[in-house]
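>> received
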Amino acid sequence: MKQSIVILAGGGPAPGINTVVGSISKVFISKGFRVLGLHEGYKPLFSKNPNYTEIDFSLADTIFNRGGSYLMMSRFKPKDEDLEKNFNLDFFKENNVRLLVTIGGDDTASTANRIAKYLAAHNIDIQNIHVPKTIDNDLPLPNNQPTFGYQSAKSEGTRIATIVYEDARTSGQWFVVSAMGRSAGHLALGIGASCHYPMIVIPEMFNKTEATVDKIVRMAVSSIVKRKILGIPFGGIIISEGVFHLLSDEDLKATGVSFSFDEHGHPELGKVSKAQILNTVLEQRLKALNMKVKTRPIEIGYDVRCHTPVSFDITYCTQLACGVWKLFKAGETGCMIYINSMGIGTPLYLKDLQDPQTGKIMPRLVDISREKVQNVIKYMMHYITPDDYTAAKKYIPYPADYDFYKILNWEYPND
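>> returned
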């Protein structure tokens, strides 16, 4: 029987998934393998009638440069009970599967590792290789190598945020923009820096103080007042959604925004616009300060996940696919494929990346101390410092309360 490989995609979409799927398929088909693409992530592996498509060259060639994912995705995460009672071992045996390729973030990778161990325990020798994917850019790849999808999402996010900024300039108002990134602020920082937004707020900024709604609002007001001093009546504030996950439930509820709540009584942030939350409380603060400033909320998130991949990601994802073949032929398993800046593919073993206590892969955060990040903060953003206190009193009674460095409990830079 012809040997087969299985490909699945878990989590949320990212530009380049089809490139990975199409390129892997082309490589393995040329080597004489069948390629089976599973729909809805891991779900088919726990079904008696798995939903899959056999991918031929024509299909692979049709999808490789398209956005979205031809393979339907899912966040399904099997429980230990599912593995013991519902796992479809026959699917692997009947199709002579030799390799399971998973595309996704840390949860998808961890589940792949569990399945590989389960197959080995049942004397089914199948390799598993993971392709790291996330527009959040928060997987810990060496040498700051981006995760695929990030550059494409940043490019489209920049296009949207640039149009929004032009609207701000044209209409003389402010826009509050939220960008995806649950744990890290890479996407918000990348978009904000590309568009020269005068205020960027990411979770990593709160490294010396607790994040609160009041501090976030004061940072926004600080930028608005600084631009008033400079004679600029418009602007944009971009905030990473990860900031909101730092806030306490009590702080979120106090905003007055209507939330639905999970079974533990926590606000379900995924169901509301983060930009709307900040815009609501910012409007209240501006009104209390008697500042006539119009603000509007804009959300950047789902509209960048299925965008057509830019050339960087198409090339990068093609190299990742070639790397999967290289690791497969070398007998590697339980690893992620990593492509360095020279285009060389090497394995990153999941056991070395996972936290020994939780089994989770810790996210890669923005290094707030790096010069390229500090350059954006110090020279491109606008906010109140002690030099502005006298001029700022025209707009706010206590300028020191809106001092950017005081809010974050940071030391002032020497320059």
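>> The two ends are 69 Å apart (CA to CA).
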